[in-house]
Amino acid sequence: MDKLKFINEQMDILAVPYEFGEWTSKVNYPYTVGEITEEPITTEDGLEESTMILTIFHRGRYIDIETIKNKIKKHFNPISGLCAKTDSGSVAVFFDGSFYIQTGEADLKKMQINLKIKEWKGDL
Q1: N or C: where does the chain have the smaller number of CB atoms within 10 Å of the terminal CB?
Q2: Sign of CA dihedral 88, 14, 32, 41
Q3: What share of residues in the chain are helix, strand, coil (percent, to 5)?
Q4: CB 70 within 8 Å of CB 16
Q5: In 61-123, which ranges are continuous DSSP H helix?
Q6: CA 39 to CA 49: how far, in whole Å?
């Protein structure tokens, strides 16, 4: 749960309109919805890895989506990531790629951004 709280806080800092699971607020483009996939724990140290899938929806110019993507990419650097202490340990989040998704609607644009998340108990 710490990772969801952390991502939510970071999206607020970046001023990216974001909700987890589904968009429940009044629709105002662009907006971003997050979902998460978790991988099985395979190491003795309890490292948990997951991927946050951010989907940006927009009825406007592609440059607006690219601006959001670049803001997220810079914040969650693909090499050094963004690391922090959480209530139960530590978290590191890395930008892990993006791509456009066809919507079938002429004016609706959609992009998926993947963030790799690593969590573990204890300090960084």
Answers
A1: N
A2: negative
A3: 20, 40, 40
A4: no
A5: 62-75
A6: 6
